[in-house]
Structures are given as structure tokens and as C-alpha cells.
Amino acid sequence: MALREFIKKVSSPVPVISVCTALLFALSFLIVQSLSEEDSGELQFWITLVGGVGIGLLTFFLLTNCYSLYRQYARNEIGSRLTAKLVVIFLFLTVIPFSLIYFFSIQFLNKGVDSWFDVRVEQAVQDALLLGQTSLEGIKQEITIDVENYANNLPKNLDPSQLLRTLDEIRELEDYIELSLYTDDGRILAFSSVDSAKMLPNTPGDDAFTELRLNQTYTSLEPISKNTQQFRVVAPIQTQSLGREFYGLQAIKLLPLRFAALASSVETASNQYDQMLFARGPLKFSLIVTLSLISLASLLFSILTAVYLSRRLVAPISNLAAGTRKIAAGDYGSHLPVTSTDELGILTESFNDMSQKIEEAQQVALSSQQETERQKGYLEAVLTNLSSGVFSFDSEGELQICNSAAAEILGLELNSAVGRSAAELGREHKELKTFFNLIERGINSGQADWQDETTLLGAHGRQMLILRGTLLHTIDQRTDPGEGNSRQITNHVVVFDDVTNLIQAQRDAAWGEVARRLAHEIKNPLTPIQLSAERIRHKFSEQQGDEFKHTLERSTQTIVQQVEAMKEMVNAFSSYAQPVRAQLQPLDLNQLIREVIELHTSALKDVEVKLELDAELPLIKANTTALRQVLNNLLINACHALEEVDRGCLRITTNRAAKVAGNYIDLVVQDNGSGIPTDIRESLFDPYVSSKAKGSGLGLAIVKRIVEEHSGSVWARDAEHGGTEMYLRLPINAMQTYRGNRTQNTLHSEQSEQAD
Amino acid sequence: MRAILIALVLLVASPPVVAQGFAQNISIELSPEAVEAVDNGVRLKFDARFAKQKQFWLVRYKKQIKEHSFQLQRHALSRRYVVRRDDIEAPRIFRSINDAMKFIAGQALQLLEFYNADSPSINLRLVLDQYSLPGPMRLNAFISDAWDIDSGWVTVAP
Questions:
Q1: B80 in contact with A at a CB cutoff of 8 Å?
Q2: Which residues in chain B have their CB less than 8 angstroms from residue A37's CB?
Q3: Is A251 helix (H, G, I), strand (E, B) or coil?
Q4: How many domains does chain A have?
Q5: Is residue A161 part of a domain?
Q6: What is the ipTM score, two decimals?
Q7: Domain CATH code at residue A486
Q8: CA distances for A376 relative to A372, A402, A412, B39, B155, angstroms
């Protein structure tokens, strides 16, 4: 990561531009130095080194930029492809003309350097040099002849003082600056100099003594300084004195000033021209190398500039693309940097404005949504805690809201019900078909408010439901470009209550009141009436007269019998009105049936009894006493129906109700008696309805009441081959969940009565 | 890493090349390119660098104490080679370039003996100064071995 940051920093334009600037200056100076004769070679070396390093840095910057661009391209980053295209375009625009310029510059450089050297000038310089050499050669010959003459004529036997004087005379005569006498091994014998303070002569080199030993004259033109040149001539003196074979007379004479200046000028010009001629190759090499370095640096700079410019050009577009992607992904409010004032800058500003407005709108929508969610949460909380079931159907008739009370009342799965229409729900839940048919009918009626009621044999047994439907009109504020700004939506809300408990409680209360009144108003006077009748019979039984006695006996007997019958009727009615007051307990219905059959053995001695009891019938929760009474009433009715039948047959069947949702058992008591009279078929289970002369008409009413107390249902129909079939459908787990509160209410009522 | 350190210590601790004898010959040879350059008027500058051997911990190094320069140039009019020493005004003239180089080497050795008389273990190195070459030739000289004319360090044994 640190390396990437470093590369990113060094690849930024500032260091690149700095390096390029320094590099261009350095290379420019290098060109100047390549043509210069100044003694600044060390500086030139360092500048060359700096140039090489600078090009290396530029190459490094270019590679890092290219690598960075490649990585962006490989990652498919926004803008990388456009940047790469622009770089390639810039590259073409740069490299092709640059290559042409470089090629022609090299050609021009070669031709230009060659053109500096003219053959005529070269010849002139050589001629000038040759002329100078010839001229100097003449002067040298003259001096050489003079010195040789003096050497040959020099007396051999002079003493040192005479010799020195002679040398002085000769030096002054010939205008030598120094005249000296040496042995051939280099020893100084005498010397005379213009500079009287000079202690030692200007000794010749080894070459001179070598020549001397060969008895040859040594002559040499020696440059002393820039414009001063001297001739050195050493002439041999053949002698045998002092044991030496040769002496040498050295004369040094300055070249006349005019000749010296001209000779120096020719020498300098010749040297410079020769040097330039010799350095032509290296000069071309230097210039080509420098030009190549400059070209390479410029090319690298151009490519880097192309990369930077491409990135700079593409950056706003990349930002816009990235911002658009963010908005598409739901990240609103992104602010893009505005880096220019041109059209791209205006576009970026417009994008920022748009993004800000979208964000504001999103914030408003979010707030609205949150408020809606809060309201929805509140509504759901209300609906959840509502004891009434609530359905909400949308305009398409599909269920949108179903509160938990509705699901509990109907035994529905919340998730499976939502999104279905009433018709679909009716088809899926057969036991609720009536219920959903009512809803569908209410919705299709188009009425603003409707109400209905129905009785279901649902998951919890028989239920009486009251439904109220309301048509709601809401306005959809969402903008629909095709249809206008808003549209009206119709929803249906159906609220339903399970009023089974309420009705049952009302019924219980009503019959309880009737029973209480019967007990107080009818049953209580019956005993005094009966006692009074018996007292009358006892008091007047001793009276004479058979007719009177007979009449009295018959009348009082009738009164007592009727009072007894009225007591039975009141007791039966009281029994009908009295609610089931015991706790439900697990009951083996098959066993109960067998016990009741056993009790009625004598009454059924002429009847064929068929028990088709399901061995796997589960235990049901029921009041044993109450169900025993139910079975007694049914068997009594059956016995009464079979009294006038020759071959009476009673079939009792139990099984599990497989076709009904929920857990139910069916009990069927079938006889082949006279059947149900048509006139009482509709009111068979109402109190005081009976086809028998002596019947109280409460038997089936009590059966119905007890079965309903167990959340079951009972109905009757004609048997297939004559007779009657009594169907009882009882829940296995009655009142354990939903109806439990009714049991509690009953128990509370019982406790209250006991307390009274 | 350890091997590198041992090699480094052996390198710096190894004795320098010591010429046998009191006044050793110093070998410096001009390349054909250099000879050609001199014959074409290019002035060559040779530096005689005198350095004293120093040692800091395990590192041996040479500290330069004196430098003399010699300039070799061809005199076209006289067809001679001229050698000038920086501290002597009078030039020396030679017929051949070899004589001139011998003179330069001899002068350098004399100076070495002179400096060694005062302070032993002085080293001499005679080297062509590439920086003093004419401008057009420098770039070529920087990268060409032909212009890397160097005698290497020589010294005299006590």
C-alpha cells in the first residue's frame, strides 16, 4: 500500500514537470558544452549524468502511469478505457511527427557538421602551416650556420675568462639571449646570458646531446609562451681537450616578435582546425546523443503529458459516470468536484444540483415512508390487539391485511392467506367457503357498507360470525405520467366477530331466567296444589255417596297426576335451560355408547342393535354427564320411533370426520322407524316440538344445546331405507383454545350462583 | 549477509599493490585514439595525484595531498611535442610522443621520491584528465575505454 502511495505521489504531474524542466535545461546546456572548448568538463559530466537520471525518472514515471492505467483498465474502472483511447490517440499524434523530426534532425546534423569543414580552408591552413614551417626553417638555417661557424672558429685553448668574454661578445653580436658551452656529457663549461642574474643556463635536452655525440648540429624551435618562440641550436665542437671528444656550443635566440606573432597565429589556427577536423566524429556523436536524449525526454514528456491530459479530460466524465452509477445504486446526494468552468464543469454542476434535489426528494420520501411505516406499525398493533377479525382487500380483490384475530377465529395461516382473493380462499378452505362467499358477494355488491352473518363449522367448532364490510376510497398520490397525477383506489375492509359466545351467553341467560321464573312461578305452587288436592281427597273420602266419592277420587287423582306431570315438565325445562357446568374431560365416546346401550337393554329387547364403532376413535374432551344425556335422549327417541315397527333396527356409528378440516368425530344414530314428519322437519330441534303425543318436546332441544355447548353440531335427515339418521359432529379438542373463555365464564357463573 | 561482510573485510584489509624497488617505473600508455588526438592538435592534460594512505577502523583510503598537472601538446610548426608542467614555466620539447610521455612519467616519479622523502607511504597516480578534453570529445571520452588512461596507484617501498 505504501509503495502504491509512493508511486502515486511520484507519478503526479508536479515532480514529472519538475524533472522535465530540469532535464531540458540540462540537455540544452549539454549541447552548448558539446560545442564549447571551455574547461568545464566536470560540469558537463554531471549534467550528462543528470540527464540520464532524468530520463530514467521520466521512464519510471511513464511506466508507473502505464501500470496504473493498465490496472484501472483491468479492473474495468470507470474512465480507464476512454483514458487509454485518448492516450493512444495522443501517442500517435506525438510519435509520428516526432520520429520524422528526429530523423531529419539527424540528417541535418550530419550534413551541417560536415559542411563546417571546407576542403579549401583545410588546404589554406595546411599551406599556411607549410609556409610558416618553411619560413622558420630559413631562419633556423641562418642561425644554425652562424652557430656552426662560431663553433668551428672558437679558439680551442682559451682560458675560462677569455672564453666567457668571447661568448659574451658573440652573444651580443648575434643578439642571442643565451650562449653556453657544454661537454658532450652535459657538463657546463661556460655560458653567457642576457639575464646577468641567471645562475644556470637553459640546458638542452637529451636529444641535443645525442646529436652532439654524433657530431651533428641540433636545432629546435621552442615555444616559450603564447607569442614567444625561440630557436635552440647546439653545434658540435670537435676537440680532444679535457679528454672529451666533443664540446657543444648552444645558442638560444628569440624569434623576432613579428615572426613569432605570425607563427603563433598560424600554429593556433592550424591546431584548432586540425582539432576540429579530428573531433568531427566525436562532435557528431555528442550532438546525436544529446539530440537523442532531448528527443527521448521530449517524447517521454509528451507521452506523460498525454496521460495526464487524458486523465484530466476524462476525470469529470468518470466522475459523472461514477456519480450516475451511485445514484442508480440508490446512493443519492453524491457531490462531484467541479474542476473546470467549461461545459464539463457546467454539466458537473448540473449533476450536483440534480443529485442534491434527488437526495432531498429521497429524504422527503424516506420521512414519508417512515411515517407510513410508523402508522402501519401502529395500525398493525391496533389490529393485532383487536379481538375482531379484520380483512382488507385491495382494488383487485386480493387480501392485503389479515390481523391475528382473523387468523385465529378462522384458523388460517397469515402468510398463506395474504395475497389471495376471497374466492381463492373459499376454494382452498372448504369449511370457510360460506364465509368467503359472503365476503366476495359483499365486495362485488359495490355497496359502501354491508353486513351479514353466518355460522361456520370451523377449526374450533361451530361459530357464528357477524361480518361488516366497508368500501374505502383512497387517493394514490404517485405520479403516473400516462394517466395524470393521481388515481382513486377502492379497498374493502371486512370486520367480523365471533358472536357465538355472546349469543350462547344471551341464550343461556334467557333460558336461565325462564327456568328461574318457572321454578318460582309454576313449580312452587304445584306442591301446595298437590297437597291441597290430597287433603281434599282425604277429608272428603269419608263422605257418603259413591258417586261423590268416585268423582272426588278421580278429580283429585287427576289434579295430582297433572301436577306431577307439570313438575316433570318444569324439571325437564330446567334441565334444558341449565348450562353445562362441569369441566370438560377426556372421554371415550365408544365406551359411553356401550354403557348407555346397556342401560336401555330392556327397552331395546325387540330391536336389532348394530354398533359400528371406530376402534381408533380418539378421546374427545367433553362433559360425560351431558353426553350421556344426549345419548339417552337419542336412544329414547329411537325406541319410541321403533315401538310400532316389527323388525326394529338401531345402528350407531362413530368415526373420525375425515372430510372436514379440523379434528372432529361423527356420531350417527340411525333407526328404521317412521321417520321425521314433514311438518316439524324445520323446527325439529326447537323446544316443545315433538311428533309424540306424550313427548315434552325438549329431548332434541337439549341434545342440540349440549352439542352446541361442545362446539359441535347436530342435524337430522331421513335414512336411505326409511327411518331417521341423527348426525352429531363433535370436536375432539373442543373449547380448549377458543372456547375456553366460555368455560371460564360458565365456571364463574357457577361460582357466583353457589355463593348466592 | 555474513559472507558479504567477510568478503568486505578481506577486501579492505588486503594490502595495496606495492611496487618493488625505490623508484619504480610508472606505466602509462596512450591509446591510439589519444595519440591520434595529440597529433591532431588536441592538448592532453595528465594529473599526477599524490595521496597518503589512511586507515579508519578497517577501512583504508587515500587522502590526496598534492596534485601536479602535465600538458602534452604537439607543436605543428616545429613538429615537436611540448610538455608543460604547471609549476615550471619552461616547456620541454620532444621529438616523439613516447619521449614526452617518458618525461612526464619520470617527472612524476621524481616528485613521488621528493614527497616520499618527507612523508613515507605516499602514492602516485598518473591519470588523463578527461574533463579537460575539448567539448565535442568529452561525451565520447566519458563512455569510451580508449580515454580511460590511468597508471593506477603506485608507491615506493621504504
A1: yes
A2: 134-135
A3: strand
A4: 5
A5: yes
A6: 0.74
A7: 3.30.450.20
A8: 6, 13, 22, 107, 104
